[in-house]
Amino acid sequence: MLKTGHEESGMEYPVIAPGQIDAFFASLELEVLKREICDIGHRLWQRAYVDGNGGNLSVRVARNLVLCTPTLVSKGFMHPEDLALVDMAGTMVAGGKRRTSELLMHLAIFAAQPKAKACVHAHPPTATGYAVCGIQPPSCMIPEMEIFIGEVAVAPYMTPGTYELGQAIGPLAHQHNTILMANHGVVAWGFGIEDAYFKMEILEAYCKTMLVTAQLGQLGHGPNTIPQPQMQELLAIKKTLGIPDPRTF
Ligand SMILES: [Zn+2]
């Protein structure tokens, strides 16, 4: 288990004993999740948020286990039997193909943020452009972005697959559900795998809109921001949804 200072993470999940792992991996409960992960992978690929074998997805399924995508497979064309079951140290305990090399980053998020039930990592081009330039997208522009994401953190560049990348991302995941990874892409956590995927759609659409906004702003119009009293109303809605935001702490 990665040390984060938030070791209460995962207390609501059952512990699966070593002798039960194969049966658990073959259970109907996990079969449903495997199909859902494959479906989300296909949606990522269809929207060109993943390229080649890029991107990875994970779902926490037990206090000691995470279900994740395999390495070196297009996320648009996965089969349920390709998925891997890993423990909280990153060791694969069941599955058809070798687990994603980015798993340590996912585990760091699960360890740091008890609310995280699933993670999606992808390379949506516009948001990744912001990450390459180290630009945090502006805020207070679009209600949906403020409620479901908020201010996006920008994590420093670290070599993919390393422990150091996980250590850079984990602490940010406590206050941000969506993180730009410098010179790499985006990682988001959610209350389920589709919820984590929605963060990817919302951020990519927002970054496209901000590019257009910047261009139109050069004509001397705007950008206009949401007034502070109405921003407070949005943050109040966000709090009722249980979505963390440093501005509401
Ligand atoms: Zn990546």
SSE layout and pairing:
Elements: H1 21-25, H2 28-46, E1 56-62, E2 65-68, E3 84-87, E4 92-95, H3 103-112, E5 118-122, H4 125-133, H5 143-148, E6 153-155, H6 163-173, E7 178-181, E8 185-190, H7 193-217, H8 228-240
Parallel strand pairs: 6-7
Antiparallel strand pairs: 1-2, 1-5, 2-3, 3-4, 5-8, 7-8
Helix pairs in contact: 3-6, 4-7
This protein binds zinc ion (ZN).
Q: How would you sum up this structure, described in words?
A:
- This protein is an alpha+beta fold and 249 residues long.
- The protein has one domain: Class II aldolase/adducin N-terminal domain (L-fuculose-1-phosphate Aldolase, 3-Layer(aba) Sandwich), CATH 3.40.225.
- The protein has 8 helices and 8 strands.
- The protein has helices at 21-25, 28-46, 103-112, 125-133, 143-148, 163-173, 193-217, 228-240; strands spanning 56-62, 65-68, 84-87, 92-95, 118-122, 153-155, 178-181, 185-190.
- Strands 4-3-2-1-5-8-7-6 form an 8-stranded mixed β-sheet, sandwiched between helices.
- Helix 3 (103-112) packs parallel to helix 6 and helix 4 packs across helix 7.
- The longest helix has 25 residues, at 193-217.
- The radius of gyration is 18 Å and the shape is globular.
- 41% of the residues are buried.
- Bound molecules: zinc ion.
- Residues 54, 121, 123, 160, 184-185 line the site of zinc ion (ZN).
- The site of zinc ion has 6 residues, from loops.
